[in-house]
Amino acid sequence: MLDMRIRNPRKGGGKPVPLLANEEQWICRCGLHREDVLRLARELVERTEDENLSGVKLLNHCRDVIWLGQKAYRESQHSVVFRDAVEESLRERTMRRPRTVRELQRFTRTMMRHPLSPTDKLLRNISTQDCYSLLNACFTTPHQYAKGRAVLHSIFACGLRHGWCSSNPVDAVQRPELCEKEVIPLPWEQLLRLLHTARQGSHVVCMPALGLMLWAGVRPAEMMRLDWSDLDWEEKVISLRARHSKTGGCRHITLHSVLIAWLHLYSPSLPHVGSICPRDWIHRWSRLRHAAGILDWQPDVLRHTFASYHIKHWHDAARLQEEMGHRSARLLRTRYLSMRGVTHAHARLFWQPELLRRS
Q1: Predicted TM-score (pTM) of this structure
Q2: Lowest mean pLDDT, pick from 125-139, 244-258, 293-307
Q3: CATH classification of 188-358, choosing from 3.40.50.2300, 3.40.50.150, 1.10.260.40, 1.10.443.10?
């Protein structure tokens, strides 16, 4: 038996590798011919980019290539195809709200059905260029592209957690610049008229929800999931649990004195139990707006009004970002903070119970 020391590129050394004295016997035992071994060695040497290597240096270089190739091959075996990664990513999100799950399913179906989809390609072998081509082929508007990019990024993030890939190729795909449409806060006269109308007749049942959207910035969809137990009167906060929040994270919002006074106007015997929104809320809310003479209603305008008056009066962007549940201040700056028609005097009055006597 002959011994030959093979250098390990990771440890700088190696261990004796026994070779049979009869090389022909060893080659035959592997089911190969001498010509096959020579051809393989030639291919390996010809793929060496450094033409100056020869002798022992060339031999060690080829051994490095073989060792690293083995490592890459083992890693590639610990992976799954793109289709399986998509299914696992969706499975991990089954506890999200039904609307969110349906949206994720819609975007993943769009990507999976496209001819450029890497459906049967190992997740580890999908490149940034593959992701870029798929997103450009599937989504034509900036908002669709941005959402598709976020969904695709989450699929690879799932793969990273499971060790199916070593990096997220979507990180290198640039986010599109979104031109956010300015949402103007509710004009002061309309705001007073809305508050006044809400205290009349059958519209009274809408008062709590209106107050929470206006003075706490609760989203309309989140509002429909809240109940009275989410209001902590001792701590003076509103607790939005993760399953109630749009972004899936919990947050606390301050119960300001004007909001507390508004809720006590609705019912002095607080707290109540059950849902804050009354039955047939969508139609009741629409009738209230029309009764107040506000026909051109912008979705989320009360949340935008809350943000604009908050920053105008308190001058605390970090606190506002936390209470609105934004992951970054970018959305707050680009979409929410419109100061059109917002004066310092109105901003001060907006947060005072005195406002209720004027409406």
Answers
A1: 0.62
A2: 244-258
A3: 1.10.443.10
